Amino acid sequence: MEKIGNQIEIIITEDGSSSLRRKDLKEGYHSTFGAMAESNHIFINAGLRNIERKPQINILEIGFGTGLNALLSLEFALKEKQPIFYHTIEKHPLPNEITSKLNYGSLLYMEKELETLHSIPWEEKTKLNPYFEILKTAKAAEEISYKKDFFDLVYFDAFAPEFEDKLWQKEVFDKIFQSMKNNALLVTYCCKGEVKRTLKASGFEIEKLPGPKGKREILRARKRSK
Fold this sequence. Notes:
Helix content: 25-40%
Largest sheet: 8 strands, mixed
Strand content: 25-35%
Number of domains: 1
Radius of gyration: 16 Å
Shape: globular
Strand order of the largest sheet: 7-8-6-5-9-10-12-11
């Protein structure tokens, strides 16, 4: 475990991938059973691999954090030759002294790509290669107006409701629902009853799926076509 700054420490999870822990919240960015395994299970396997292939898949991520979900999505885009536009939201971007110490790049043989994801400018669309374009927005998700009927997939990866209550309100999910195409998916690790009720109230159809190691269930929500 390596401590950086006053409130964040780097940890190595069970699958060998690194993660971060907020000491002030006593909350980790990922499961201690495996950061990469968790992200692959929830966001790639339950989410991205369930999206029909198309000329471009548009993804919205709430919570850029360590950049792991973006890196795994970039890896998918390159391997599958599937163009992806990736819009990620992060109110408090991590400093380079932290992101430079994350080991996802070395584990995936994508060190340059991970460095690029963190170093490119915020608020500017950047095309990393023919298959992956990204826009990073450094604002609160609840304050953003999203383009309607645009996203095919949403990664909802914010801190848990007890730590970031504003992000889990119906008003936020209402805006996200309107931003999604018909039959688009939203995936999240959080399976709390209040979250399920809020998603339903915003118009989503929800299903519980088996979780990764250490977590019984996750949620996948769909904006059903009318």
